[in-house]
Fold each of these.
Amino acid sequence: MDSPATTKKSGLRNGSEEITCDSQAGPDSCCLSLKNGVVQPLLTDLYQITMAYAYWKNGKMKDHAVFDLFFRRNPFHGEFTIFAGLEECLKFLDKFRYTDSDIEYLRSTMPTSVEPEFFDFLKSLTANDILLYAVEEGSVVFPRVPLLRVEGPLIMVQLLETTLLNLVNFASLMATNAARYRMVAGKSVSLLEFGLRRAQGPDGGLSASKYSYIGGFDGTSNVLAGKLYGIPVKGTHAHSYIISYDSFDDLHTKTLAHKITREEMNILTLSCKYRDQIASDVGAIASEASEGELAAFISYAVAFPDGFMALVDTYDVKRSGFLNFCAVALALHDIGYTAIGIRIDSGDLAYLSQAAREIFSKITKKFDLPWFAKLTIVASNDINEETIVSLNEQNHRIDCFGIGTNLVTCQKQPALGCVYKLVEINNQPRIKLSQEVEKVTIPDRKAAYRLYGADGHALIDLIQRFEEDAPEVGQKILCRHPFEEAKRAYVIPSKVESLHKLYWKNGKIVHELPSILEIKNRVKESLATLRPDIKRKLNPTPYKVSVSESLYNYFHDLWLRSAPIGELV
Amino acid sequence: MDSPATTKKSGLRNGSEEITCDSQAGPDSCCLSLKNGVVQPLLTDLYQITMAYAYWKNGKMKDHAVFDLFFRRNPFHGEFTIFAGLEECLKFLDKFRYTDSDIEYLRSTMPTSVEPEFFDFLKSLTANDILLYAVEEGSVVFPRVPLLRVEGPLIMVQLLETTLLNLVNFASLMATNAARYRMVAGKSVSLLEFGLRRAQGPDGGLSASKYSYIGGFDGTSNVLAGKLYGIPVKGTHAHSYIISYDSFDDLHTKTLAHKITREEMNILTLSCKYRDQIASDVGAIASEASEGELAAFISYAVAFPDGFMALVDTYDVKRSGFLNFCAVALALHDIGYTAIGIRIDSGDLAYLSQAAREIFSKITKKFDLPWFAKLTIVASNDINEETIVSLNEQNHRIDCFGIGTNLVTCQKQPALGCVYKLVEINNQPRIKLSQEVEKVTIPDRKAAYRLYGADGHALIDLIQRFEEDAPEVGQKILCRHPFEEAKRAYVIPSKVESLHKLYWKNGKIVHELPSILEIKNRVKESLATLRPDIKRKLNPTPYKVSVSESLYNYFHDLWLRSAPIGELV
């Protein structure tokens, strides 16, 4: 009832044999939201298409528009955001084309009064006449600074809205979330993304892996993300692996060839010998430890002698897991291999990591094996930013966190409120008013700069009218609060960075795209330019985003003129 | 450091020209997480593959396993969940095959010590030997009842874990969320999903559209969801459309042909005439209303004369939007068309909807147009369950809610904690212990039944050992709490429903799959069998899930035997 459009209930799959995804359309539409790895242009809100028709019908095909994509508030109660998703946006522009089956669908969906020539027009649309300016992917960004500025034919620029928002919103949110985890965890701890099973759908999981890596994680459990993006993938075994072994009878292979000599050695016998030998050091009783767990560890060590990492909490970490792990690690050592470490997936992670470290130190002393004290301890049970802060306070001894649900769903704030606003049409500025001052948009085609101080820290972002001269190093620049007249400051920058680069012109990507590793480094470098008080978790200082004197006056004049008569604004 | 596996940093895209998604691999890998509309088997955690190798290496290729997929707690502080995602799981099984490029990637990722024959083994894997039992998609389900029971070769059943969880988790969460919105909104209100721009990535958006429709929504703004699933799509225009018009000069077309007579009539003149005529009824002043807004409305009405729905809050709802809308609606009426209504996207929605309804009634009386009082009012500003409850209390006059962020990200709880647990191997039961009793899994291959009372309401779910006879209508059945010995009840069911059906056998879907509309109806019917106190928003009554006497004893014996010696369980 909201719309002129109603759909035929066509293409519904029914029955067990026919499970192609779109029986009407050709193979081109068989990838749901993606076609050849790129988002399809039909992944948009219907109102973009109805607006396109209304514009077309009213002869606005040649109108030229400028839209800004930006957000109004940093996520997670923080004071910074990492911009990400740009490469996906550019791929989307590159492949933007309605297919014949798209057009057929739209024709069947829109009212019959829509003129047939409109569909020919849609069919011919490409992003060739679009200009896209953007902040560099991986940069730290702030409210109201345009992340993208999209210029071109009104209809086309409008049609891009929903998809660009979809591609930037979650990517930026995810990268920001990951960067926050990295900051609380510190540099010396390894962070792994383990969230695929709880992510919001298949691509939700894939995006989470990609952008958490960009934001500061070291790897993922997601194999496809490894394959597609070259991200390091990690993983060993689950509780089900451990409980699938009941006793030593389940061990089909009990020997392992020595790494150097290739002599076959009995890893079961060795493990049992060490288990008896170290039980009292570990504070456990050999006969009480789980035999199935030991069998599982041995079988895994036989499969991955150079990669023995054991999940130690299936039965009882202190009575069974630690002892069985150390026994197998010592047996492996006799066979020429060095174990990696343990994973703890439940219980008091601070306490258990300290207990493990203590045991590892005892073994180091007892057998004079320095590497044993340095074995890796991975923790992975429902971890979020707050857990890490608390574990830090308790002096945990964890080397690596595996983080799932809270990271990949961005539990604390599952959406970044990016918007896409018309700021200029046919060289005339446009302003969107709102009773909430914060929601009034800054009109006009704009440039944005970041001004740096002598110590290398970013001081302030400055938004100007596009025609204004760029701010210059060493010159005094008046920076004004965009809304509050009394708030203003003079800044003398030691360095000026232009935030927008032209990425798309004449139907081509015109700026070299960084690799995923370069984007990851950009995040690190960009965050390093922020003062610590802006990045801190508790009550961070807001970073200032200002407008030039000229833009301020232009903006506020227009605001006054646009307000309905008699309205106090 | 968590893993034996490290990856080559290959396949990174760099430069502006080369933007295929996986330059190493053939076109088969070009759809990111999806291949021919189906999730790829590599969308999994690496540990599934490392476990597969360790199982293989230890000769466990023929081990036969049973896994249950279930959740432990209903989401959103509620007491029910809607099960969804089954069709996607079956499509995944149907297409399960590692491609050559998958195998190449795994070979390059896993340690060189992995025996080459393992990759041949992986290459030959299919889901042909798997049995999949499931609850019917769209059913209301409860904690601990297996949603899926997957049986077959241990390695293969284990390999399915992450992907099945990914496919069920978000689908079920989303359908449940939508069903909750439907319940608070009531049956007479229309609900539209508007969340694509804030969803967690492209597929996050697509899944949100599909499963919110299944859960009880009436349509979506997502065009691709309309095309792929046959969901009704809705939408009109955005604020940018309104502000792209500045004055009547922007109107290229000022006439519209009468619906019946085809006589060209001047809609601008008519609209201006009505605007003057009704301004005082609307409580506005014609000269103060926005001319740009009126121009935008007229242009939209010309494009969609049968589908005129206007966004009225761009400038000022009461001083401008209402008046301009009514003027154009009356003009359209003279030209033979009936307007649809208005959308309000900001402000006090209860108050504004009442104000709009009052104005519509006045117009009805003034011009004797009964339909005017019944025009549709759509509201769409950051709406969640609580907003709707509050609007209900304020006697809103809204006919339709457009709901975005809070719906599609499941803001209140962005993940359903589904798990996938080994419960039997080679006909031996398996139990996963935990210090949290709630996390102990119920072992054994199990059947599940729903027992109904004489009034048609569901009384209790009963989980049994698979070998036990099904409960019978009219027979007294002892139902026991799975963990608490003292909690037990006798139930005499008037109807018994077996919850699990066999969906997959011999590599084929063996149970007819319902259409999306049938699943949607299943949700409605299934929810109708729940007592209202279980469904209510505030302090709902938990629905009981029980185990049979035989399963209780079997389970608790095993639990006792599995506990480490000396441990109090």
Amino acid sequence: MLKALITGGNGFVGRHLQSYLRNTVGEKGEYTISIFDLSMGDDVRNFESIRTRIDQFQPDYIFHLAAQAYVPESTMNPRRGFETNLTGTLNLLEAVRQTGMHSRILVSGTSEEYGYDRDDSELTEESVAKPTTPYGVSKLAATTLCSTYSRIYGINIVVTRAWNHIGPGASPSYAVSAFAKRVAEAEKFGTIINHGNLDAVRNYTDVRDIVRAYRLAIDLESGIYNLASQNTVSTREVLSQLTNMAVTQVQTNENPHLFRQMSNKFPRPNYSKFSKLTGWEPKFQMKETLLDTLDFWRDAV
Amino acid sequence: MLKALITGGNGFVGRHLQSYLRNTVGEKGEYTISIFDLSMGDDVRNFESIRTRIDQFQPDYIFHLAAQAYVPESTMNPRRGFETNLTGTLNLLEAVRQTGMHSRILVSGTSEEYGYDRDDSELTEESVAKPTTPYGVSKLAATTLCSTYSRIYGINIVVTRAWNHIGPGASPSYAVSAFAKRVAEAEKFGTIINHGNLDAVRNYTDVRDIVRAYRLAIDLESGIYNLASQNTVSTREVLSQLTNMAVTQVQTNENPHLFRQMSNKFPRPNYSKFSKLTGWEPKFQMKETLLDTLDFWRDAV
């Protein structure tokens, strides 16, 4: 039996990873999974909390997903982001180091570490990280710490930097999930969809492709690996695809109060380093992901 | 009167900065200086401690020097380094943000943010930061946070990245100060100087040139500025200069137990960005600095 500990295991990505591992047979048989999550009273900000779990569970794999991941909150309250994202990662790494565990660790970094408004045509793992948000800074600090820990203490730590991931179960704080929810509501209640500027371009990967990548990534050598897809599209395109899927006519309305200032530059994510090593490519088409997300909200609203 | 708050104000650099400011007349007359230092019960790790001081003192300038700066300790106890260097900086920036103060801030970063064992021929502010030690990571996280705070919240924050600074009053934990102390002891007691490998090349600036640079830097625009000198020399050269200054014959002895593994690569620090903007160049010759350091230990041992 392979033992996998998932921090933030009840979050959006954590739940998908749980389900992926439960449906996958590891090389030593099925996975025994231990969930470490704030919703269950576990807190990575508390060293003893994570240390005790690691000491008792003795994980082969640690998927460290626990994070304060909502960017606007990180700007309002940078301290919470730092405590969770950086101190939380430090606590986890220290717990592994101090207990002498030989767990392989995956730490989920983010494309936000590279920052916005930059002139590069594409972003590889070698691109200079210039985070634009406290969230990005906290994650860059955490992932830089990982590189240092693997070098100094010989711990195997894989860092992934994923671009936006979407799919069923995502919080409606995020644009794509919010749009899907509003389309589901519009179908049911005939509501109008208010939106701001739709020019922002982002790169989207299905969360189920992401968790499959995590499982592959954790067996790689220590290092940083970009995760992304070919789906670099505007928010306009996302909203249009979703409204086209609606079973009723859906009315959208541009509301200037919802406008946010944003950069139109968007360097292409390069994830060939990971792809070449593992053969991984996203399996889900954007259309399928959006439909599954819409169906999720159709059930929920 | 210009009001200057110095965190870590009783440390090696802090004491030199105090003395520099006390002997310099600011544009609005003399400086009123407030010292914030662990030796006086002040702790940047405690938000209320630094917030209260800033709120009450209302500084025009904040020189943020408080740090856990001894690299071997940062490797033994990364948590303390992170709490002091990163959380401490976060607390200071949050205190300024939350009190709405318009203080200009200087945060002392370090060349350790660039890391060792790299192939560059020289290091500018644009070079990729790849810290090799927990100390370097903690400082990189702090200085990246500074860039984010100046961008998001409009706070003026200057980050300096200085290479090794030396001079009278430095802790004998550091090689140059340790050698000077041993030479002073050898002169007095006839002791033999044991040393490890002397091949490590470093760049040295007199601490008095550094604090003069801090005073110039804090009036610049937000950004990162390298501080260094032309003195890139081996530890062998430093020891040899010091023993040549001794008034007695000093015997040195290579001790294999003191050998440490180190990289021989040492990219040249480029500090022309700062030099061009301010006209600053180091005034102290290496010889003068070493003699003053030796004299300091002659008085102390």
